[in-house]
Design brief:
Length: 381
């Protein structure tokens, strides 16, 4: 760990630190507040799932928050992020309101995807968040495509494409890295290496370490400790600027650990990892506890301040859950909205060429039937 670390800090009153790792006290409190918000948000989602407010799949990021804060917060607002399905906290980090994320988990119209996507399909292109993808590895070619679009339009943004360790065994990963390297795209591929794909340890399905996977394409590989939010932040800050200036694609092995089961339906530990293994990470490698303790040891955080930050995080999550509860479910008549660009008057796709096309061409914007009643009047027989 570099500059300013340790109780003495890097200046200010004798014996009292004012900075850590080059971060001011306010910045450090901000990072801790972000991570506590992510943790409390996920705990709230866990609770809501248990009482049936959230249905379908739900994968929590608890234990991996150092990466949501450390890899996304240093990005510019107009940079792009695309990711897998363990993405609630990443969506918040990129700028989606926790209310809109919680409402999406609840399947409500106030959700960032209008209640259509649920936990695995959070989207808001206005803040540069391109999902939320449930198919392992599906987002990797999309990440290459987003970076290509940046280049094509002459922008200086970058795209950060997250994936789990299991995704590096998908063919799409290899194809995307190859073309990204050929085209020198402004993309950073980040593996959130929590050691497991569902119940399978990475070591059982790979003859090499994660870090070795980009070498064949000539893409530089880096390893960062994702549980150390400060190191991760500084690392991504530097890497993002290098990619922005034309360094080409980069590959990051971010070492982390998931503290919960693969999804809400899986136990925390099982035959694939022991209770002791999980407990040792929770005790010694919790990114939030690690940051909290460092700040306290450096006299940059008091117990009272911590309690205040945590109370604010809990209040924001209670507010998000209340918002989600009050938000309506999508109306059944809008079932076909956003599904197909065009459907015929019977509420079906134009599988029969243009037959049945209403006068004037399109069957209605957003996939509605021309009657304007969504599925109403369609779907006969
Ligand atoms: C193409 C495909 N195959 C299998 C699955 C089932 N599946 C869902 S998550 C998962 C494991 C992914 O693990 P990893 O990429 O390491 O991400 P993590 O869950 O650890 O965040 C699998 C195999 C899927 N969704 N898509
Ligand atoms: Mg994994």
């Amino acid at each position: 760990m570099a500059n300013g670390d340790g109780p003495a800090g890097d200046g200010g009153e004798p014996g009292a630190a004012t900075r850590l790792h080059g971060f001011s006290r306010d910045e450090l409190h901000g990072l801790l507040a972000d991570m506590l918000l992510y943790r409390r948000f996920e705990e709230k989602a866990e609770e809501a799932y248990a009482i049936g407010k959230i249905g379908g799949f739900c994968h929590l990021h608890i234990g991996q928050e150092g990466l949501a804060a450390g890899a996304i917060k240093p990005l510019r607002a107009d940079d792009l992020v695309v990711t897998a399905y363990r993405e609630h906290t990443q969506a918040i980090a990129k700028g989606i309101d926790p209310r809109a994320v919680m409402a999406e988990l609840y399947g409500r119209t106030g959700g960032c995807s209008g209640g259509r996507g649920g936990s695995m399909h959070l989207f808001d292109t206005a803040v540069g968040f391109y999902g939320g993808h449930g198919i392992v590895g599906a987002q990797i070619p999309l990440g290459a495509g987003l970076a290509w679009a940046i280049r094509y339009r002459g922008g200086d943004q970058i795209c950060v494409c997250f994936m789990g360790d299991a995704a590096v065994n998908q063919g799409a990963f290899l194809e995307s890295l190859n073309m990204s390297a050929v085209w020198k795209l402004p993309v950073v591929y980040v593996v959130e290496n929590n050691g497991y794909g569902m119940g399978t340890a990475f070591s059982r399905v790979s003859a090499t370490d994660v870090e070795a996977r980009s070498g064949a394409y000539g893409i530089p590989a880096h390893t960062v400790d994702g549980q150390d939010a400060l190191e991760t932040y500084r690392f991504f800050e530097r890497l993002a600027e290098r990619v922005r200036r034309g360094a080409g694609p980069q590959f990051v092995n971010a070492v982390t650990y998931r503290f919960r089961g693969h999804s809400m339906s899986d136990p925390v530990s099982g035959t694939y990892r022991s209770k002791e293994e999980v407990e040792s990470h929770v005790r010694g490698r919790d990114p939030i506890a690690l940051l909290r303790d460092r700040l306290m040891e450096a006299a940059l955080l008091t117990r009272k301040e911590l309690e205040g930050i945590d109370a604010d995080a809990r209040a924001a999550c209670d507010d998000a859950a209340a918002f989600a509860d009050a938000s309506p479910l999508p109306a059944p008549s809008t079932l076909y909205d956003h599904v197909y660009a065009e459907i015929n008057p019977n509420g079906r796709l134009f599988l029969d060429g243009r037959e049945g096309a209403p006068a004037g061409g399109r069957a209605g914007g957003g996939g509605r039937t021309p009657a304007g009643g969504g599925a109403k009047g369609g779907r006969r027989g």
